Amino acid sequence: QVRLQQSGPRLVKPSETLSLTCVVSGYSIGSGYYWSWIRQPPGKGLEYIGGIYYSGGTYFNESLRSRATLSIDTSRNQFSLQLASVTAADTAVYFCAREGNPISIVGKIDFWGRGTPVTVSS
Amino acid sequence: FELKQSPSVSVSPRQTATITCSGDGLSRKYVCWYHQKSGQAPVLVLYEDSKRPSGIPERFSGSRSGTMATLTISGAQVEDEGYYYCYSTDRFGGVFGGGTKLTVL
To answer: Which member of A34, A36, A113 has the closest CB to residue B41?
Structure first.
């Protein structure tokens, strides 16, 4: 069973950088799939942030591309999200997930982390 | 690439609930459906338009025709309440519909 364990601060100050990490167990991320981040603002729907392949290939929501950075560490079987210059509009529950199929992003999001609520406030 | 869903659907228990998802790119793309209850991560209920993952009841079915995908819950139960999101991919990655709130009462 694939499990995703998220970690990171739950409170971030405006203009600072949000950083989250997702550790994967039960599957070697170097074997494929995209490893992705999705967020959900309070009372709103799901918003795709982006996904990264073990080789470094990425996809991004165009509205967040300029502020989002994805990284992947196959030796630690984990991947990370950094979102720069945050504002209150970035307050959301952030989910990490496995997306696609072993060789491409086309497919399904089949395993999710439990979600990390992040508040942007001074 | 935008996916549009109606905001809400309401049915009585044991009735059939139908939730739709429309988008110009859907004629060439598979769709997945997710069920989300308050405070929980989404759960995959259908993938590749109509396939059910292990553990998803047979009352969940799906189809796609042209630019519209449909999720059907035959004999909806109270535990099926919550939000349903359609999902597909485009050249930028994943795309979610805005979500449909299903009420069963």
So the answer is: A113
Count CA atoms closer than 13 A to A28's CA, side-chain side.
4
Task: Kindly list the distances between the CA atom of residue A32 and the CA atoms of A35, A36, A68, in Å, as whole numbers in the listed order.
Answer: 9, 12, 22
What confidence tier does A22 reach under pLDDT thresholds 50, 70, 90? Answer: very high
Q: Torsions phi, psi of B102, nearest 5?
A: -100, 125
d(CA B4, CA A35): 25
Model confidence pLDDT, tens digit, residues B29-62? 999 999 999 999 999 999 999 999 999 999 999 9
What type of residue sits at position B8? S
Distance CA A17, CA A83 (A): 5
Report how far residue B25's alpha carbon sits from residue B22's, in angstroms, rounded to the nearest whole number. Answer: 9
Do the strands B43-46 and B8-11 form a parallel or antiparallel pair, or are they unpaired?
unpaired
Please write the tens of the pLDDT for every residue from A81-102.
999 999 999 999 999 999 998 8
Mean pLDDT, residues A92-116 taken together: 94
DSSP three-state, residue A111: strand
C-alpha closest to that of B84 among A46, A112, A100: A46
- Mind telling me how many Å the CA of B21 is from chain A's nearest CA? 14
Count of CB atoms situated within 10 Å of the CB of A86:
18
| Chain B residues within an 8 Å CB radius of A99 | 93-94
